[in-house]
Design a protein that fits this description.
Elements lengths: L12 E2 L11 E3 L1 H7 L2 E5 L7 E4 L1 H13 L5
Antiparallel strand pairs: 1-2, 2-3, 3-4
Length: 73
């Protein structure tokens, strides 16, 4: 990852695991992830708020840990 990607025109997609109860609402920008080599993630309840940007390897490790149950709420 060479820097912070421009997210001003990013198309955000809500995670299929986001719930409708106002709790866990996560979005990511797959087009930025594919083009920039970075995975931007944000809280869908606050679209004008900050986004976290992860290196693809770090994001992949995080998702694997969640899926396997190594991380708990």
């Amino acid at each position: 990852m060479s820097g912070i990607p421009d997210l001003s025109c990013a198309v955000w997609v809500k995670s299929s695991h986001s719930n409708g109860g106002g709790g866990e609402c996560v979005e990511w920008a797959p087009s930025v992830a594919a083009g920039e080599g970075a995975v931007p993630v944000r809280d869908s309840k606050v679209p004008s708020g900050p986004a976290l940007v992860f290196a693809p390897q770090g994001w992949s490790s995080f998702v694997s840990a969640v899926r396997s149950g190594r991380l708990s709420a």
